[in-house]
Structures are given as structure tokens and as C-alpha cells.
């Protein structure tokens, strides 16, 4: 993902503060946090107090893998860039980025991980048995460029995104080695991530550039017929979101209140078969859509679409039923000790609606925004000196299907001290983040 400069954080006390603080509804409003949308679309995930993360304690000292974790959590390293993954001859890729997990028929699962390396990016995978043992590793996509994030589909494939001006999305089978299939219908731009709304049969996409857009693709009725498990991803309309109160190609101005739901409309992208950076350059201020500064992580959950923008350190929530968008976290609205989450990047969501956000820089933490809008540090990555590994970034957070393990990478780990290095971790939780059985 493209690195953008985040506001500097102050002393460690800013992180420590939220270890014990409990935000009231009034305090949350002051900090730029709010419930998402006006529809009752969050289900049980929107009920305060149900989160399994609400009771986690403070972060301890770095463990043997350089992770600061709450009591009861443990970690292991599952892959290191340039080294063969246990049980296989596959060398783990450099610059590991976005990832997801997929169940296997034998009760195990696969973790997929992009490589954000120019020209030789692609996707690697690690296969686990039902007890969590590593049994295989292989490539599911090769010879693509700067594969940043992507998205898992409800039909069991991985959509891998290229973060280049001519970038495309490739659909991959995580269960076996292969080379994927390009899906040009999902647009040509600096892709970051994809999320699928199976109920309304549409896909959402973020764009990692300072004048980017928030996209959706609506497959044609023939491409994704009612009742079909999946679309063919051959035909559809590429559209961009615009706040209905703003004109084309505008960034939300000062005074435009984003802490409450704002109505949006979807406009057709111009020349969707062309690189959108070139289209915008040609159209200038007439280019459709609202500007979003550095679109990053993206996740669909029970009618809500969460995404992050690193250029302004916001976490957004789009309500697919109400067709409204709001910022549920805004670093620039936070003050003093409440500024603990910056460099917002990849994200994932638990069964109860906890939004886990990985930092690119900042304090090198994964933080949790709980359903009641408390914000807590979940873990922190340190370097060989035991301090936050701020020259790296955290990527690819994803729960195992049963919600008992969390996977992620330190893309350029300072613990290894070499260019292109990366470490992919597994953290075992003392509970399931998805007690209903399968994580979203």
C-alpha cells in the first residue's frame, strides 16, 4: 500500500490510557465516533457488551516474537520472507500484505497473503490442518504487480488487487496452486481492497491514491442472476460514490459533518475500461465522485461496509440499506490521550462487529473499535530493540474460520534487518472472536 504521512503520536501514555478507559456515548461523540447508519443492519453485532474483546487487559512486554499481547494471548511465527514455509518447499514472499482465511473440507483452513512487490507480486498461501498444524504452502497467483490487499468472496475465492495505475483484480482459488483469472470488470486503477455484498449482489472497492474514489461494481442481471451463488464477473457497471450534497471531484470541506450519516448517490464511472487515473486527468474537476484520500482496508459485515482512508486517518461505514456514509473514527477529531489509532490501513471484522484496524506506522498496533465505540489496543509489533517497529507496517489481519486465531504480517520487519523482509504471525486468542461458528 502507498505510504502516506500520518500525524505524529505523542508519549506512550496515549496508548496506555485506553487500556482501562471506558467511553460513554457522550465521550464517543466528542471523539468523532458514532453508530453507523439509520437502518437496523448491524444485527447482534451492534449490541454493546457482546464483544469478546471488551475485557482484554493491557499489553504486556514483548514476547519471544516481538509482539506485545494482552494476558492469555500467545503467538508464533508461521512464515518469514525468503525462507521455506514449514512442511513445504515454497519460499515465503517478500512484502506480505493483505490476507484472508478459508475453511478446508477436512476441518482445517488456508491463509492467503498478497505480495506487494513490483512485477513479481502475486499471492502465497499456507495450509493448516484441523489442529492448526502447517501442512503445506504454495502460490495461487504469479507475475502480477504490487498486490496490495483484496477480499475474500462468499463463494470461497480470493480477489487479489494490484496497486498500480493499470492495476487489475485477479480471482484465485485458495485451495490449490494456480495462477488466477483477471477480472477487468472490477476496474483499472490503484486497487487496494474488495468486499462483496451477496444480499444486494454488488462489490465494493477502495483506491489507494490521494484523489481516489470509493467504487462499486453492480454485475448485470445475466452476470449474477437472482439465486445464483456467485457472479461470472464478466459484465457489470463500475460506479463511484458521491455525497449527494457535494459536487463532482470534491473532498468533504471543513464543516461538512461526517460524524452523522450523510446521503450518497452512485454515479457511473467514465470510460470504465480505461485506467481511471488517466480519465481523471483528462476530465479534471468534472470527474465524477467524491475524493477519498488513500483508500485502504475494506470489509462487508451484515449490510455495513467498513473502509479506511489513510490520508485523513478515518474509518468509514457505508450502510447499504440506508445508502448513507459516515466516519465512525476520525483521528483529527480526537484530542489528547484519545489519539491512539493512526496510519489506518487493513481491517477485518469479528462476528459481533468489532472492527480490527491495522496501523501502517503509528504505534504499529492493531486496535479494536468495539460495537459500543470503545477503542482498545489489541497488540503491538516491536523491532529487535523492543520498541515499536515504526519502519514497518501491519498487514493482512484475518481470523481463522473458528475465530480462535488471528493472522497478520509485519511487512518490513525490523527484527530481521534486511531489505524486503517480512514476518507473518499467528496469535492465539483465549476466546473465539466468532463464537457462532464461522467468521464473516
TrEMBL record:
Source taxon at top rank: Bacteria
**PROSITE patterns referenced in this protein's UniProt entry, alphabetically:** TAT (PS51318)
Task: Tell me the organism.
Answer: Solimonas fluminis
Q: What is this protein called?
A: Translocation protein TolB
Matching entries from InterPro entries are given as: PhoX (IPR008557), TAT_signal (IPR006311), WD40/YVTN_repeat-like_dom_sf (IPR015943)
